[in-house]
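Data availability (excerpt). All sequences and predicted token strings are deposited with the supplementary files. A representative entry, DUF4124 domain-containing protein, is shown inline so that the format can be inspected without opening the archive.
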Amino acid sequence: MQPLLLNMIACALLCNAQAAFSATMYRCGNSFQDTPCVNHSYSKTLNTAAKPANGSEATKDLSPYVVDAGCKQRGDAAKKIMWQRQVGKTKEEQLEAAQDTQTHALVSEVYQHRGTILEVRNSIEQACMQQKEQDQLAEQLLLAAKKLKQRNGSPASAGPSGAASEQTTSNKP
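Structure token line:
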């Protein structure tokens, strides 16, 4: 009885010791290594110690950037297009099956990219996020221009437009 108990305790200690001696891993693109990335590309540090079993780590996305729901959906659609591409569907076949202009544009964009499904999906998502950032900046600039025009242009624009309307009314017989 005592050797069985001793063996169980030894196994438990050895299992727990693995987590204590685990090293830090780095994710460089799609590969994993024990040193940081050489070319200073995106490098994500991964702790290989035991993870909690509550499932929160399993649902965590390892993408190198934050993606909103719309761009995530666009990336998933791009992934499905890539699956069809790998099966042998041509660009023309997928363009014919496209139901709207957004899908049509996405098919064209996917066929312009080369790489794995994951690389193409990440590229599409990243381009979507960049476009959203540009749209947001353009909207902010437009609002700032409107405010500036209202602040500086309101009194000045009322004068010339008022004068122009007076001229048109005085020119009428």
